[in-house]
Amino acid sequence: MSKKPKDGVGPWAKEKLDALGEYLGFYTKVLKNQGWWCKGTIYVDAFAGPGRSKVRTKAKAAPEIGLFDSEPETDAEAVAYLKGSPRVALDIENPFTRYVFIERNPERVAELEALKEEYGDSRRIVVRPGDAATELQAILDSGIDWKHYRAVIFVDPFGMHIPWSTLEALAKTGAIEVFVNFPLGMAIQRFLVRSGDIREN
């Protein structure tokens, strides 16, 4: 079982989200004028999270406070927020025809519903509360004609939450681009055991 993710995102998240935004911008620009065969484009965020996240910073050592000194004030302006992947996708120049945000955390689902209200009729947004693997399979089983639709699915899990067979099924459509954030540092180390015996599951 994986550990619970910390609140907020690390400072490296900006680079990741900038890359996602550039990719999505190029993708929709290319498909914008493809004629009769492309009836629509779909963006699916398999681990959508909130619409924006606080950037984690390393805590500085607190100054010593004397017995009668007041607590130092925290600077609200110094707290940095970053657009989450849902907002990055919603704000590209040539938007997708439809957006699907999958999230299992009820608080984050509520934030995504508020985001949906914020964008109103300017974007077609569906929020799907639930498990990413189950919801992705439901999309595959929904009867979308992949000859005439194209999709990008952004997969940015904290742990190993999607079976490889689901990713293979997405690839078999021949119409879905799967953008996987595969962190090579600490994320892999979290799943390795010291003995070196890697279990099949």
Q: Secondary-structure element order, as H and E?
A: HEEEHEHEHEHEH
CATH superfamily membership: Vaccinia Virus protein VP39
Q: How large, in whole angstroms, is the Cα Rg?
A: 20 Å
Question: Which range does the strand content fall in?
Answer: 15-25%
Shape: globular
Question: CATH topology, what is it called?
Answer: Rossmann fold
What is the number of strand segments?
A: 7
Largest sheet: 5 strands, parallel
Structure summary:
With 201 residues, this protein is α/β, with parallel strands linked by helices. 31% of the residues lie in helices and 17% in strands. The protein has helices at residues 13-31, 85-90, 106-119, 132-140, 164-172, 186-191; strands spanning 40-45, 52-54, 81-83, 98-103, 125-129, 149-155, 176-180.
Would you give an account of this structure?
- This protein has 201 residues and is an alpha/beta fold.
- It has a single domain (13-55, 77-191), classed as Vaccinia Virus protein VP39 (Rossmann fold), CATH 3.40.50.
- The protein contains six helices and seven strands; from the N terminus they run αβββαβαβαβαβα.
- The strands form two sheets. It has a five-stranded parallel β-sheet, with helices on both faces.
- The protein is globular.
- The model is unreliable at 1-5 (pLDDT under 50).
